[in-house]
Amino acid sequence: MPARRASVRRAPSVRRLREPRSPVPPAEVRLFEFSELESETELESLAFYNSNLAGQDALSVTFAQCRFRAADLSDCRLDQLTMTDCLVTDSSWANLRADGGMMTRLRLTQCRMTGVAWADGLVRDVIVEACRADLSAWRMTTFDAVTFVDCNLTSADFTNADLRGVTFRNCDLTGAVFHHASMDGTRFRGCTLAGVGDLSSWKGAVVHHTDLISLSYGLAQAAGIRIDDVD
């Protein structure tokens, strides 16, 4: 069994918010012609178009400068997964589990990510756009220069995550959990924040004034204020 990569440690210093860097395009891509993923495999400059890879179990797979379109990675167990300079479009990551995984310079667009479990990992220079990522779990993962745009993140779990480099724009975060998350500088704009958990972790977060209405009940509860709804 290959040795497990060391866990990613969160830096204690304040992280400067910046825009995600774009994926570096490959000179050319060739079609992936196999049906199985093998542990310790490095896959570079490949096109996964309409590929069915669902339900596979492999360790320490690396994708570099790959393109995914209508690719199915649902129900896979891919711990220590590494993805660098990849574009993922109209694909399914539903219930993908990738503990200790690393994403660097990725763009995910219109993907189904319901139930993704990406724990104790690193997500850096990533844009997640118009994706359904409800019930996803990002416990203990470090985010650096990451933007979620127009995403469904209802009941997502960010427990103990380092979110200091994240911007959420026009996302539905209803019922999302932020227990013990690091959020100094995390930005929210145009988001639905009803029922978010553990607002004590939100110290230093930057919330647009239009988002405060959906956040107000949670803030009142955290402050011990009782709401009187009797006319």
Query: What does the largest sheet look like?
Result: 12 strands, parallel
Task: Write the CATH architecture name.
Answer: 3 Solenoid
The number of distinct structural domains comes to 1
Our estimate of the beta-strand percent is 15-25%
CATH topology: Pectate Lyase C-like
Low-confidence sequence ranges: 6-12
- Categorize the overall geometry: elongated
* CATH superfamily placement: E3 ubiquitin-protein ligase SopA
Q: Which structural category fits the helices and strands?
A: mainly beta
Q: What is the radius of gyration computed over CA atoms, rounded to a whole number of angstroms?
A: 18 Å
Just give the CATH class: Mainly Beta
End-to-end separation in angstroms reads 65 Å
Order of helices and strands, N to C? EEEEEEEEEEEEH
